[in-house]
Amino acid sequence: MATQFKPQFDCSEEEWALRQDLAALYRIFDHLGWGESIYNHISVAVPGEQDVFLINPFGLLYDEVTASNLVKIDVEGNNVGQSQYMVNKAGFTQHAHFHRELGARANAICHVHTTATMAVCSHRDGLLPISFYACNFQGQIGYHDFEGVTVRSEEGDRLVENLGRNSILMLRNHGPVVMDRTIPGMFVKMWALQRACEIQVATLSQGEPNVVQQEVVDTHQRDLAVMSSQGGAGVLDFEAWKRRVSKIDDSWKS
Questions:
Q1: Longest dimension (CA), the chain
Q2: Do 58 and 83 form a contact (C-beta atoms < 8 A)?
Q3: Cα–Cα distance between 141 and 170 in angstroms, integer?
Q4: C-alpha span between 20 and 6 (Å, rounded)
Q5: Which residues touch 50 (CB under 8 Å, ≥6 apart)?
Q6: Most buried pick, 122, 136, 204, 249, via CB within 10 A?
Q7: pLDDT, tens only, 35-73
Q8: Predicted structure pTM score
């Protein structure tokens, strides 16, 4: 984690390191084309503080997010940090409910509107087992029917119920929510989901897909679990992409 840029306000070293990683992730999403104007969100729970998380300032593009301007809010929507920015209600409502109800399993959460993931969310059959990446997620995704923009807190209970024990919730006709215990784990999961959706859109454009049989999916997931233990889930991927965006612009560290 980067240390050469110091915080402009009082916070723990652990929080500052987390702020830098989250700001880096916004820059990575932007570099990969996963931004959506000033909308969509990535959030992370603040360690040692109950029901408090960091999220992007509403009104900034992803390439404008820095460690210092991230907004620190509680699950009731109160700004408990020193940012002067507000947050998008749609992002707060959804993320707050997951952070409050799911605890550590949802420490890091992203919601995107990429073309490929929205296309698959809008497909009747959802994500199909037709590629290496799609096989990663079979039986591990929840689906939630579209209810309009997510600004009503009462929808939160249905979101959690439809997620179940999974870590990905495909909001039908909308876009995915991806979560994990760590930022690197969530990032690599989102990266693989994006690839799976891109490949599905391309494959279905050719006609009837070749569907992988369940026994092969089971073997694939078993072996993948063994491989993912190398260096921790997503850690090497995340550090590599941090190096990439730092070469372009390292202002996210400040």
A1: 57
A2: no
A3: 7
A4: 10
A5: none
A6: 136
A7: 999 999 999 999 999 999 999 999 999 999 999 999 999
A8: 0.93
Nearest to 239 by CA among 21, 93, 56, 10: 21
Buried b vs exposed e over 152-162: b needs ≥16 C-beta within 10 Å?
eeebbeebbeb
Q: Are strands 71-74 and 168-171 parallel, antiparallel or unpaired?
A: unpaired
**pLDDT tens-place string over residues 103-155:** 999 999 999 999 999 999 999 999 999 999 999 999 999 999 999 887 677 88
Strand arrangement, sheet containing 175-180: 71-74, 52-55, 41-45, 108-111, 175-180, 168-171, 141-144
Q: CA-CA distances (angstroms) from residue 129 to 24, 178, 231?
A: 32, 18, 27
Q: How far apart are CA 223 and CA 21, in angstroms?
A: 29
Amino acid at 87: V
CA–CA gap between residue 136 and residue 63 (Å, rounded): 30
pLDDT at 104: 96
Other CB atoms within 10 Å distance of the CB of residue 77: 13
What stretches of the chain show up as alpha helix (H) in DSSP? 13-31, 89-102, 115-121, 132-137, 155-163, 183-204, 214-227, 235-248
| 143 beta partners | 170
Token output for 104: 């550590």
| CA dist list (Å): 161 to 13, 125, 127, 138 | 35, 20, 19, 18
